[in-house]
Every structure is written in structure tokens, then in C-alpha cells.
Amino acid sequence: MNTQTLKFSNENKVEFMKELREKVDEYFEKNNLSKHANAGMVFKTLVMLTLYIGPYLLMMTGVVTSTPLILLCWVVMGLGMSGMGMTVMHDANHGSYSSNARVNKWIGASLYILGGLPETWQIQHNTIHHRYTNIDGYDADIDPAPMLRFSPHKPLRKIHRYQYIYAWFLYGLMTIMWITTKDFQQLIKYKARGMLANEKKTFYQLFIKLALTKLLYYILFIALPILILPIPWYLTLLFFIIMHFIAGVILSTVFQTAHVMPDSAYPLPDENGYVDNNWTIHQLTVTTNYATGNRFLTWALGGLNYHAVHHLFPNVCHVHYRNLTSIIKETTDKHGVPYRVQPTFFNAVSNHAKMLKLLGREPA
């Protein structure tokens, strides 16, 4: 990943940026609404937490003892894990769950029981991905592993020809990498690149915190179930992996269908680090909405199907995205700015698969 700070142009469509922000602010003021969570969001938090922790408690307290039901519990936990990540942890670590920073910090700490570290997640997601979306060499989300080619600027390997087939399996390994090596690698990398300067803890404090929270996670979700559940240890380990595989497929698919699409832009900065667009327009060229008419999907995905809205207003809680869409669409139409939407989730996944196939065959 490059360390040069990129600069976005402030000249293109300045009036669009100004008008859009004014209209969104006006919407909240006129309706006397907070930009943060509402009662529905609090209810959703309880539902997702129950989906994740409820089955665990049923198994660990001996309420559920049969092997098929234990497997079902781990499957539900996989759904709950992805739900907690998308609808609760994500908003909190963006600072959009509450106007109170302490509340965001405590709710964002739910990442610990998902196996991650808030500090590295915030740097990778908030600082890097949101600032440099789809810019090769900067956005780590389009540079996940050598076996996957998410950018037309990456080297084309023979194996990429089949990535549209095997990518879905690798997506399932996402959170498994997250709970094992990824956080450690990121922490070391961010220290080397001076990206921990704004953190309140030193590298060594963060490293110890990371090691201890990982250890606690392994004890709670691997060691104790192996000791307590009335099934062979290898089945417990297999079911744990299944839980993570389910969560990994869901999370990866939801995020990648928003950025790795046939009409997504992949701009490159010039030699001086300038991107030939302003940041707002850039976000609209690299991000896609999908299934915006599906209310259940919007509820379950934490509004991440309104991904363009999220990238434009990451400090606004996702419960407001649906109502902001008409404002954004009206303003983009007025100023001739791109605003991409896939009608259904199936369309989004299908076009993402087509893009994987294209990137696996077309050279830079």
C-alpha cells in the first residue's frame, strides 16, 4: 500500500457538493431528526446481539444438546455475526450510532466478540477505504490476496481466469483471516507507516491489547465449547469454522457488490498525488447501490445496500439512508452526476460475478 497522501480536486462540480450537503442538513433540521440512531436502531441492536449470543448461551447452558441443533446454533451465530458487523459495529465505529463518543466506543467494542480490534478496523475501513475507495495501491479492499484481482490495474495471473468461480469460497475465509493473522499484520504495517500517531495507545499497548482480546475470543468461542459441548472436539471446531464461513461470505458479498462492478471507476492519481475529481464525485463513481426497494434487506444489511449514501455520509446512521436517497438522486440528476443503482440484490451479485470474470481475462 502506498503512503503518499492523495489530494482530490476541489474544482469539479463544486455547486453539486454544496447543494447536496445543504439539502441533507435541511432534511434533518426540517424534520427535527437526529443524524444518529433511533428506537428502531436500538431494537435492531438487541435482535442482532440475540442472534449472535443467544444460540451460544443455549449451547453452553445445556439447553441444546443434540448435534443437529448445535450445528443450527452455530449457523444462526454466523448470521448474527454478520448482522452485528453490518448493522451495529459498523455504525458505531463510524461514530454514527450516537452523538456521544463514549456510546460509540462501547458499542463499537462489540468488534471484540466478533474477533477483531476496533483500532485497526477504523484505520483500514474509515481512514483508508473511505478516503481512497477503489484507488489501486491505496484501498486495501481491492487488494485482498494474490488469487483475487479486484482492480484492472493489478497484474493479471492465469489463475484469475477462474476467480469468478472460486472467489466465493475465498470470501468465506474473510473473517477467519480476521480472527487469526489480519489484525496483527495490519497493526505492524500501520506502525511502520506512521498511521498509529492519532491513536491514544502506543504500538506495544495495542499489540498487548490485541493479543489478550484474541486469546479471550479463542477461549470463549473455541476452548470452552470444546470442553462443554457434548459432541467431539473436531465437530465443535468444524461448526466454529462454518459459523465464520457463513459470516465471511455474507460480509464479503455485501461489500464487494458495492465497489467491484462493471461500471465502477478505478481512477489513478498522477505523479504528484492528485486525483482528477473531487472526493464527493469520486465516491459516486466508485460505489453502487442495490435493492433499495427491499426493506427487509435494507434492515438486515444495515443499509449497506445504500452504499453510495453511506460513502457520502458515513457519519449518518444507516436508518436514515432510505430517506436521503431521493435527495441524492434528485441532486445528481440536476447536476449530471453519476448515481448507480442495481434493481435487486441478485442483479448486484450477478454483475459482480461478471466483473470478476472480466477482471480475470482482461489485462491492465
Descriptive keywords:
single chain; 4 strands; 59% helix; 3% strand
What is the strand and helix layout of this fold?
Blueprint: E1 7-8, H1 14-30, H2 39-60, H3 67-94, H4 101-108, H5 118-129, H6 163-171, H7 174-192, H8 203-228, H9 233-256, E2 274-275, H10 279-286, E3 288-290, H11 295-300, H12 307-312, H13 321-335, E4 340-342, H14 345-359
Parallel strand pairs: 1-2, 3-4
Net shape: globular
Which consecutive residue ranges, at least 5 long each, have pLDDT under 50? none
Helix/sheet category: mainly alpha
Question: What fraction, in percent, of the residue positions are helical?
Answer: 55-70%
Query: Which sequence of strands runs across the widest sheet?
Result: 1-2
Percentage beta strand: under 5%
Give the number of domains.
Answer: 1
| Helix segment tally | 14
The chain-level mean pLDDT equals 94
Topology as H/E string? Answer: EHHHHHHHHHEHEHHHEH
Give the termini separation: 18 Å
What is the rounded Rg?
21 Å
Number of DSSP-assigned strands: 4
